[in-house]
Each structure stands twice: as structure tokens, then as C-alpha cells.
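Model the whole thing, not chain by chain.
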Amino acid sequence: MNFDTSFFLRILVFPGFLFLLFLALFCDWFERKIMARMQNRMGPSYTGPLGILQPLADYIKLLTKEDITPAHAERPLFVLTPIVSFSLFMLSIFYFPIDGANVFSNGGFEGDLLFVLALVTFAHFTLFLSGWSSSNPYSGIGAVRILTQFIGYDIPLMILAVAPALIAGSLSLAKIASTQIVPYALLIPWVFVPFMLVLQAELEEDPFDIPNAETEIVAGYGTEFSGRKFAFISLSKDVQIVFGAVLTVCLFFGGPYGPIMFGSPNIWFIIWFILKVLVVIVILEFVEAVCARLRIDHIVRANWRFMAPIAVLSFALTVLYSPLGRSLMEVFR
Amino acid sequence: MPQMMKEIASALFKKPFTREYPFTKPHLPEHLRGRQIFHPDRCISCGLCARDCPAGAIDMVQVSSKKMPLIHLESCIFCYLCVENCPRNALTESTFYEMASMSKEDLALKPTEPVLSENTVESD
Amino acid sequence: MAPEEEIINLIRSELQGNALEYNAPRPRRVSVHVRPGAHREAILTLLQSLEFTMISTITGIDLEEAVELNYHFWCGKAEVTIRTRVPKPALEIETITDIVLGAALYEREVFDLLGVKFLGHPDLERLILPESWPKGQYPLRKDWTPNLSDKFRSLRKKPVRARTTQNKTNGGSVVNVVLGPQHPALHEPERFLFKLDGEVVVDVEPRLGYAHRGIEKAAEQLMFFQDVHLVGRVCGICNVAHTTCFCQAVESVGDIEVPPRARYLRTIVHELNRIHSHLLLLGITGLEVGFESLFQYLWRDREIVLDLMEKLTGNRVMAEFNTIGGVRRDLPVSLANETKKGMSTLKDRMNFYGKVFNDDPTFGLRTKEIGILKLPEASKLSVVGPVARASGVEVDVRKHDPYAAYDEIPFDEIIYKEGDSWARLMVRLDEVAESIDIITYAVDNLPSGPYRVRVPRRMPEGEALSRIEAPRGELVHYVKSNGTAYPERVKIRSPTLANIISFRQMIRGCYIADIPAVLVSLDPCFSCTDRMAFIDVNSGQRWVWSMNDIKAKSRLEEP
């Protein structure tokens, strides 16, 4: 890893920070448009062509609003947690192969899948801390809910996320992405379908929307934040969704690798990457539109009675299946 | 669950139900209770409109030779009691509804001349 | 023997000398004037001898030397009013909350606005007026005017503590959480103090009065036909119900016969209003349980009704259609056909929603077996409307006390037995289907003739009580006229005031996440609930919310 200008350009601009930021804003717009069309209405339409500048307009508006810290909040935690959670989510996406190689221009390292999942767990924990430090009952309830939810669902998530590694034979994200001649979504569907549901729970989307259930506890852990801090909390949520989509794409859809038509392969990697992320977002939004919000006790019960056993069973099934899976892939090569 | 899924999937391909106002305007029914139209030539200064208004939004003001009604649109509830009760039909209905204004003085139906803009549809 | 005579004989035999005067002016209306102190006996007689008794409301009227209290009861076959006079200045009378549970809030209302003390009431506190209201000012008294602003201006600097009871449980982890008055779950401001143990609700204290506008007092300053428009603004969503009820009351006072065409037209617009209200509520339920797609679809289909209302009455929501003596517009044939077409489209959509409500698993998890109110409690608390019908109580004014054209139109009363939030929502869904049928029938069988009769401005002396089935339940208007063009007293009791008392029963033992779902299944319309005395807008008030909280204290001060 040599620290020259191209390294910093990769981290800061493309495919690093700025690119991912704009991708998060674009996915926010896309999400809202798809959700609106599913509900038979227009979605963002006035700012920019087709409303594509709407998320940017929202963030600029948030930056102009007054930034209040409640008198009884834990000041250091309250100020730092939005930025820290945003950075952690952003950092965890850096390890994925976005344009053929990850942001640090190397092939990653063995086990970076687990490293990324651990980073995300920390990021969720900072979201919990942001609610806890707000000293507001609504934030407190939201914080407790997010803790209950992600601690419960992290276990099936990790189990299911490691299942593709069995077929690929390695825990490195780049290797898992590149060995998918047949996308794992088709090869091991019994891992893919529970994974999508558990991902909904990790991303706090319907039906697992309860940490930010607007009609019950105002805004959950984000109640006391306003102005700049709220912009960061909101951005963390968007980047979280991008992270979820990117994780699914790399584990189950073959990462950025796809048929290369002409020209430089890197362009095609980016195009396929973005297209696959959008497809995953459409699936997630569809699940969100179809379901109501479940209560916290339903969610906890669903986790320990269904999700965890199903995750373990799928994992076991994948273990048995992996030699057959690998030989199937050889056939298609 | 399956009905909802079918409905949502098919909604993705339908035209959206919401319109892009103000670039497209809605279709107005004939007898929408919009802003009233005042005909000063028909007014006989009886003051029934001002007396009967439930919101107290009409003042009789002196304009040249006679007293005529000035309707304060910010208090008006558009119940059309004035339109109904006027014995000479000096106040008639219209479907004009875009009355947003930056100042309260503009929000008054003055009795100086009949107020007609390009969006009004006059009906007697 | 007519039911009215039966009731009169019953009370006459029980009370003998204590009952001073009897009156049965109209079908299904009885009023009995009893000596002060004998009202409890009269009410006990009603409760014990008649099989169904439900309190509608308590009206207080300020006469020169006394305050007249009217206790209105619906007794299955007739509305009985027990009247008694409490002499000034010692305005005290025994309470009836031990025999009629549902009277608690009504007595507090009379205490708040007229200053009558009810001895033995468990919780005689202010109901509608704010805590900072100066003592001794009773707005509904005839000598009170709102020009006493200097008394209120002195309050500008004083902070006000919102009323909370002390935490009565012995230690433990009970947390007080305030919901409101501004909260995304509430569509009108109301304050609920929830006592939570973790995520389970232990108790709740509602505080009403935030949408207080002074309509009852203002109604005495306007003439009858102007009051129709004022009364319609008690609640935007049920405005047709309020205007219909008021017009009926005034027509009873003035002995005015409404032509048959007008009665049918009133029914059509009334049912359209009901469909609108129910669809709105079902959509809000979807929003509260996180089912946003359902919310958007229901509100999109609500547009069919709103467009019809706009064509029929001139405005999407605020119909201003009724007037004393009939309705203001006619229904042309083209519009009648459009109405029928709209209704048949809506009927198909309601089949779809019926399937979703019945079968959707996530929706069922959030509404079934939650917020249960069983039949005996529902009767004791005198709840009304879909809340009562979902618990098995048969109380639909359109069936049992028909008005407008309901005695000529066939329809079914929808009763469910489960008493949970799901049942309350299903009652409303099925009522939409019934309303569609009623409208179609009414449009097909519309009688010809005039749609309005001209009435004089002055109404003869008298009083009348009119009850109708608003979308949320039984709505009661009591109008008393003193022979001039201005009413002497207008009393409005809207259905949410009767139902809010049952919220406590329903929510105990439920989780926080169930609070919005249960609250919305009650269909609270707080604009209807608070509309009593005149509040001077110049009185600056400071609210201090203090919350005793294990984790932290958070104080919001609003200048």
C-alpha cells in the first residue's frame, strides 16, 4: 500500500468517500421514488429533473437549521455519536470490491467479511449511544429498542453471511465476490431468503421498523437531534442502507463482476455494481411496502424462535452442500 | 398478504394518482364555492349580506354615492349565505380558489368594480 | 301503551310528590322535572326498571336564581331527561358517578364551566379549561363576558405546572411518559400521561381541552341560522353530523316539518360524510401500525368520496349543506348517476380492503386481541358508536331512534363481539359497505318535491334534544330557545367525550407500541370533544412539562 495521491484520491473521491456519499443520496432518492410508485403517488418531482436533487436539498436545508443540545444530554456522546456512526458505516463500505478492487487498492485480507460485520455492530452501538445520551424518554425507548433488535439479529446475520464463504472457500470479500460464476442467490437460495429478512431487521426497515417508529416515539433515538447533527444521523441511516445493499451484492450477486461489453473493465464494474445495488434496494422496498410494523416482543420472539434456528439450519445445509456447490460452479466455468 | 403484494406490484406500473400542481391544475366542479363576484350596479345597499354573515366578514363601506359591501376574505368562511340572501343577486358565485396573498389588504373583495380574473367562471 | 307514557308512569309511581312536572313533547322524548335531591332516586328507578339505560350527557343552564341541570339518558326506547334546579349561591348537588360510571366527565364539565359542585365525585377537577384559568370565572354563566382580559393578563408571567398525580405505585420502575399535546400519533392536541413499566402501560391520564374554542358560548351570540355554520366547525370531519343534528333540534323547537326530499338528501350527504370519516380513520390506522401502503391506498380511494362531496355541496370537506328547514342545494339527475357510479367503484375497493384487514398477518398481529373492552364494561361506561358496537352493545341511533330518512331505508346494524382494536376497525369497514348501500338506495328512491322550506328567524320558546349517529357515535345537541332569534343555550356532547373514558380500560396491560393502534381505533376527534367556553387569546400561558423520569429530566419551556 503506497501512500501517494492516487491512494488518497481513491479514499476521498472515487470510489471512496464522495462517491459513496453521492451514491447514498442517489439511493435515498431511488428508494423514495420506488416507494412512492408502489403507493401510486409521484414521489420527489420538483427539485431537479425527476426530483433527483431532493435528498441534497433536504440535507442543505438541515444544515441551515438551528442545532440544539438539550441541557441534560451527555454532551460529548451527544455531539460525537452522529459523526462516529456515519464514519463507521462509511468505513465499512470501503472494504468491499467496488470497482474491481476495494478502496484501499488491494485485494482485502482473509476474514475482512467478519471485520466489516464487526464494524457495523459498533456502528449500531453508537446509534444506541446517541439515543441513550439524549436524556429524553422517547430517545431512551428508541435506543433500547435498537439495542434489543440488533443484538438479537446480529447472530443470524453473521451465520447467514458466512454461509457463502463456505462455497467460495474463503472469508475474503473480494474472493467471495469474484468466485460467483453463478450468483449465490440462485445457488443457495435457502441462505439468500432468510438473509434478506434479517437484513431488513438490521436496517430497521418495515416490518422491523420499530426503533424509529414515528407514530409512537416521535423519532426514536434521533428525537433530540436537530440541524447538523440530525443531518449526520439521517446520512448514517442512508449509508446504512447502502451498506446493506452492498453486502448483499457482494455476498449473493457476484459483486461488481458481470459481463464486460467493451472498453475499460473498471467502468463496467461500476455500472454493474450500481445496477445490482438498485435491484437489491427494490427488493428491500417491496418487503417494506407490503408489511406493517411489528411490535418489539413479536420481533424478539420471531428472532429466537424462527430466525436463529433457520439460520443455523441453512448453515448446516450449506456445509453439506458446499462440495456439490463448488463442483456445480466448475461446470459453469 | 398476497392481495397486498399483487396490488403493490401492479401499482408500480400505473400512472401516479397525484398531480404536479401548479403545473397541472385540477378539474373543478361547476358549483365549487370559490370567491364571490360582486356587481355594484345591482346593489341596493340593504345591508342584508353584512347582517347575516356568520363570520362578520362583511363591512358596508361608502363608495361614491352608496354604501356597498367589502368582504374580508381572510375571515370569510365561504358559506355563501350572502350570495343566497342578496335580494338583487348582486353577489354571485364563482369557482376561483387561488387566493393566496402576501398582504391582508389584498385579501378583500372590494366593491369598486366586479373582480374578474382569467380563472373565474361566472355563473348566475 | 307508548313507551313514553310507560316511563312517565314508572317515575310517577316511584317518586310521587318529588316529581313536579312531566312532558312528552315528541315521539321518543320524555322530560321529568324533579325536586332538588330527588334526582338520584329518579335515575336509580330508570336504571333498575328499564333494561337498557345509558347516559347521554348532563346539560347545565344558567337561570337567574338557579342552575338547571338536565340529566339526559337514552333508555332503549326513548330519551329521558331528568331535570332539577340547584339554587344559587350554594351550588351543590350529590353526584351520580357511583350509580352511573359514565357520568364522571360530564359532571366535571359542568363543574368547570358553571361552578356546580358535585358532592362525592371521586375526581372533581377541571376538564376543559386550562389550569391557569382564574378561579371563580365560569364562562357559561349568563353574566360572564370575555372582556375581563385584565384578569388574564396578570397570568402572563406565572409559570404553570401541568397537573400530574404522584406516582402511586410502591417504588418499582414505573416511568411517567407524556404523550402530547404535540405528537405524531395524535392528529389533534391532547395530553396523555402514561405510566409505563418497561414497555407495558400501567395507567393513563387523559387531559382534554387543548382545542377549546368557545363554541357553546359563541352560539348564544349568533342567530339560529348563523349557528348552523358555527356548529359545523366543531369538527371538520364530522361537520355534516353536527349541522344535521343542530338543524333537527331547531326544527323540533320551531315545529318545522322538513320536506321528504330534503330528508333523503340529508341522509345521502350524511352517509357520504360517514364513509369519508371511516376511510380516513382506516388509513390513519394503517399509518399508526406502520403499514404506510395501506394508508396511501385508502386515502386515494377517499378521493372518490371527496370529489362527490365537492360536486354535491360545493366543498370537499366542509359541506355547509344543511340549513334550518331543509338543504341548500338540489341533486340533479346527472349528479345522481355519478354518485351511483362512484359508489360502485368504492364497493369493489372495499372488498379488497376487507380481504387485507381479515387476512394480512402483520396487520392482524398489531390489532387482534389488543385493547380489549368487554361487553359489561362497555355498557357501564356508556360508550357509543363503533367502539360500543365492537363490544356487542347494540347502540346505533339510526336503528333505534331513527331520524332523517332512516326509518324508510333498510340497512343492518353492524355488531362484533370481540371488543378488540380489530373488531372496532372491522365495524367501521363494514359500515362503509352499509353506507354505500344506503346511498344507492336513497338516490334510487329520491322523492320529488321541494328541498327547502323557508323558516322565520325567530323560534318559539321551547327546548329540544336531537340525537344522531355521527361517524364516531351518538351525537347529542340540546337547544333551548327563549322566543328570540338567538338561542338561550346550545349544548353539544360529541361521541369522543363518551368514549375517552374507556381508553383507560383498554390500554392497561398493553405495550407502548399498542398505544397509537388502540388510540386510533377509538377514533378520537378531540376537536369535537373540547368546544366549551370562551378563551381570551390574549392570555399568555406558560406550560412547564416536568417528567419524573428514572433516566433523566427533560424540560421543554414554551414562551
